[in-house]
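User: Continuing from earlier, I have the next pair ready.

Assistant: Great, send them over.

User: Here they are, in order.

Assistant: Folding the first of the pair now:
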Amino acid sequence: MVTLSDDKHAEEGLAGLLAMAPECDATLVAAAWHALEESTQEAGLEVADDDLRDALAVARILADLHLDTESLCAVLLHAPVARGTLPSEAVRTTFGLATAHLVDGVVRMDTIRDYAVLGDGADEQNAESLRKMLMAMVEDVRVVLVKLAVRLQAMRGLRDRPEAERRQVAEETRDIFAPLANRLGIWQLKWELEDLAFRYLEPDTYQQLARALDERRVDRERYLQAVTVTLEQELQSQGLVAEVSSRSKHLHSIWRKMQRKGVGLDEIVDTRAVRILVEEVAGCYAALGVAHGLWQHMPREFDDYIANPKQHDYRSLHTAVIGPEGRTLEV
């Protein structure tokens, strides 16, 4: 049996993490990893391997977000501190006060389980009050980022848990953690948390929508590749420096739009979408002109988040067009 608690595979896991975070202090991160290994040995092989695997997965999530050395160390250390196999004083002594505060903050946020689960009939005002309280509990926003990554890893491994636990965790994720990710502007975490919660709270609807989208996957990829090439060529001909990419689908957002508009999947433009990244605001409007010059704009499908910005300095233009082959396309 191959486990992360085997020395060879543990070191390979650590090396992979350090390769993802070259800007971090490798010595400190390695020390945190080894402290985690030592503190879990007395808990038994199964618990130790689960701790190592989950900690490594969460650390990789944060490395993708380019978080710092203290955050990665906190991820590796918070579980044994919460379990009582690693003293908080040892964290302060070895890794410094800042890391110790992060660890303590993550452990405190676990008090979410002391509150009533916010189910389907919950008042959104109560959920919002709880989100505000959680934000107020922490002095460092990195605590929330660590907790979001921990929750995402928990959601990724939720399939094998009992049904009642799956629903409880999914409800917490939908009502508390996904909105927190949205509030902080961590879109990749928000989208995945929402999709995973949707999967466990509305399993039949989720599977139906996933199958419908999967049946069209090859055709959609072909279509988006052609659209991307067309946009890149036209932007270049206009002298605009831009990066064009297709956007991954997010089942929960598609489903919510279907519910809100009372329409079927064929009428939702989000299933075919491209993103144009430019360096300056003027480039956004110029790129918009390119898109509208290529394809007919769809009325009432335009949002200007530059003139009317969202939270967290999110600035973009959203439009929808009748693209090639008469298909709706979001840009």
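And the other member of the pair:
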Amino acid sequence: MSEPRPKQESKGKAFERLVAAVQQAIGPDAQVEWDRKLMSDCGVRRQIDVIVRVGNASKAALIAVEAKHWQKSIDIDTVGAFYVTAATVGAQKGIVVSSHGFQRGALKLAKRLGIDTYVLREAIDKDWDGHVRGLHVAVHNTTILCEDAEIRLANGERHKLLSAASVKLLTQDGRGFFFDRIVKKWLADNPQHEDRLVELTPDSPLFYNHGTELKPVATMYCRATRVTGMVSEGILDRPEDWVFFKCLPDQTIEEKLFFEFRDLQQGADGFKRPPKKSRISTRKRKATP
């Protein structure tokens, strides 16, 4: 006999857990619970989609959250009914979160009753207006090519260089600097000399190691040309694909928060139903005579 399939969670319950994950992300220090029943002041237990407790355990403020994954906007009656529920369980604040917005009358009543109205849904291109969604990065690698490089020594000798990048000139204290690096540093302060024949006279004594003898350098010659090398390009997109924002009666939207659905789903997976109390009595029955 095959085992029964586990009951599939409804979209409404899955949305409630996403809302709980958002509340936990907004208030990391808050105590967030999903799908709880609280005793009302009339002695009847009322179901609350998400409960948020903020502050110390002894003086924690209770926030009741209603989450609606409907294919239509929330109406005024839904807001009114939730206000009664939140008030009877002693909530200091009420929040309604919708996946498809609110009717104008619902927003007006919510504002009058002090209930915050939010939307949580997949983000669309328009949601990113005024926000940075991604960056296009292009890195251009440029270098200075020293052509026709030549070293002229104080004794009148002239040495042509096959590769300016491999010839190192030495200072009196033994430090070494490559020919092309010296030229690049000088051109950084004198960019007008690019693509021209450059003649440099060392500010401090430099020596050219020719064979086994160090000979003082009088001048350095080369034609310095700036060359653009490989261009590296990349697009850095923000991974957030869901948006959470507050709706006001005048149809304006307050600051938007963007979330990555993968993170929300991971947070939602951390919320579970409270364990059901056993209905089996543990009291011993009296023996029948």
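Worth noting for the second one:
The first strand starts at residue 31 and ends at 39. The chain has two domains: 11-130+238-268, 137-233.
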